[in-house]
Amino acid sequence: MAEGEAAEPERTARRSGPGRVLIAVYGVFALAASARAGVQIATKFHEAPVAYLLSAFAAVVYIVATVTLARSGRVSYRIAVTSCTIELIGVIAVGTYSLTDKDAFPDATVWSGYGNGYGYVPLVLPMLGLLWLWRTRRTV
Amino acid sequence: MVDALAASLIVGVLVLAGLSLLLTALNRRVGRLVLAAAAVGEAGLLVQVVWAIVRLAGGARPDGGMAVFIGYLAGSLLILPVAAAWGLGERTRWGPAVVAAGFLVTAVIIVRMQQVWHG
Lengths: 140, 119
Known about the structure:
The complex is a heterodimer. Chain A has 5 helices and no strands. Chain A is mostly helical. Chain A is elongated and about 45 Å long. Chain A starts with a helix and ends in a 5-residue tail after the last helix. Helix content of chain B is 82%, strand content 0%. Chain B has 4 helices and no strands. Chain B has helices at residues 3-25, 32-57, 66-88, 94-118. Classes of the chains: A mainly alpha, B mainly alpha. Chain A binds chain B through residues 4, 16-18, 20-21, 23-25, 27-28, 31, 35, 39, 42-43, and chain B through 65, 67-68, 71, 75, 79, 82-83, 86-87, 89-90, 92, 94-95, 97-98, 101-102, 105.
């Protein structure tokens, strides 16, 4: 795989190979989180405003991560690292908080229970994202 | 929704996901086989959408909410074409892997549609 990466033109390395799959999954989460937050805020915002605003925030982070992972350049690289880090902190913080204080999250967000409603993909995804960004750091 | 149709669709897309992952393991790029698999999956999803429209026109309503159901219905048609296009742009073994991810996401969407329909 390392050989394949080296053979790629530098400007596209981050969205090639496994990165291609990563961006695809990020895109799905950007879409799913946005749709979910949109429906929650539009139909029942008063029930759990904090949880739904958090859903919307998570959706924005996923969108930013998807776009910056797919784009080349140093600025995109840094924003991608920041978004993945925010996601990782978010999923761990919200996951822990949702377990200790269930009343605060009457309705699940994408990060509740460490993302167990989404097969723990929200927990694994930022780790894979950071790993991939680290592996492609020289091609920025 | 017809549960039998959804169940066969889920099994079908999981098989196609397995096929795509096999092609990744065999170091193949996205070719006619993967594109045909995506087309077959999309055709099955179209059948489901048409059936859902027939049911909705007949007065049936999803227990989990109309807007959410329509969202999943529209989303189910979107995933495979986008995955196929995104996988086609990758001229390595990771192309079929992208399409495999699309099939897996499609399976999840069908499951969620069932849950929304039954409330």
